[in-house]
Amino acid sequence: MSLLTFKYQSITGIQGPLIFVEGVSAGSLGEMVDVCLASGEARKGQVLQILEGLAVVQVLEGTSGIDTVSSKIILKGETAKIGVSLDMLGRFFNGLGEPADGLSEIIPEIRLDINGLPINPVARDKPAHFIQTGISTIDGLNTLVRGQKLPIFSGAGLPANEIAAQIVRQARVAGGGQFSIVFGAMGITSREAFFFKNVFEQSGAMERTVAFINTAEDPTIERLFTPRSALAAAEYLAFEKGHHVLVILTDMTNYCEALREIGSAREEIPGRRGYPGYMYTDLATVYERAGRIKGKDGSITLIPILTMPDDDITHPIADLSGYITEGQIVLSRALFRKGIYPPIDVLPSLSRLMNLGIGRGKTRDEHRGLADQLYASYAKGRDTRRLAAIIGEEGLTDMDKRYLKFADEFEKIFVGQGDADRAMDDTLKLGWRLLSMLPKTELIRIKEEFVEEYYENREP
Prior knowledge:
By secondary structure, the chain is α/β, with parallel strands linked by helices. It has 13 helices and 21 strands. Strands 9, 11, 13, 15, 16, 17, 18, 19, 20 and 21 form a ten-stranded mixed sheet that branches. Strands 1-7-4-5-6-3-2 form a seven-stranded antiparallel sheet, with no helix packed on it. Helix 10 crosses helix 11 (398-415). The N and C termini lie far apart (71 Å).
């Protein structure tokens, strides 16, 4: 903290969560401030902009009760920081990194800037080895690799929270090493917060989890701090303590809505659909903190979850997230209506780094070919289903009927696993069992040696 303290009692205006202060000769962008009210109450704030002595400060606990005459601000001389230590594991915090579980403050080993430091591209190491989620559609067909950014695209009412909780319960890292989870929630309801707390505690996953929770009742501004606080904790665990850290952030749509709200209060020129023009850059400052660093044992793997408004995958939030990250897992409303859980739509889902985490010495030699064959066969079955809706099943060939049945069984058994925890080997065995519904001659995407070894000819 700076040895000099700068105080200003020159608040000229208040607009939403923002206050405007004149005559600011010191201070810097992103600097934290204390907003002192006449009653003696102190609230946290952050400098958003300084232009010709006029500072724009966002107040984290809201501007109610602040007056322009007697209230003052005190510059703290440092950016937003969070105290971190291994004692954070098993604890709940708010979006600012303050304890939210009724327990005492942690004694920090160090204090880290929540904005982190950019990873030097030269120092980045390739993602390697997979993280097993226990969900077949992810592990088998869109494998999550250590150091990857793989978002989940959901829709209103779809069970994204349940899938997030299931991943926290079941996730385990391949290749050895200490495994931890950092969970960040933004703008969730009190009911959802209770759901996550209950799941973490009852499943036994809490002892390896650090949770940062911002509810809908908390200040909107806090949502901008939550993912950064979570990632600061993840960077400490990964790059200081050598843990393999899985970070789950939900819901990035609430984060972007908060970003739009602040931009509107600052009277910024809006971009697409009213979101700030710099939203791509802002999201990148969050997503790009995932990865591996050469010479460091730990890694950060990121699963951001976002709700697509109107199930529109071209919406700016989903669109920009797709540009920055390495694939996506897409939830399907059609599968959800059929009662299939988890309702993951395999066809638009993708893991661009899958090949780095699978194959010989990691999963099984035939994994890539098996995944390609399952994908191709399911796609053909879906096409056949649309054809049957037009001409009727009577107009289908025998092979078409096999593919139609394959698609139904694939959705029912492979996708619709419920809350079961499937090992990677069980997922691959199930894939072979489903492919045995088709003749060997149809398995053109798998090497012949693997077909001979694993294929079992069964009548559908």
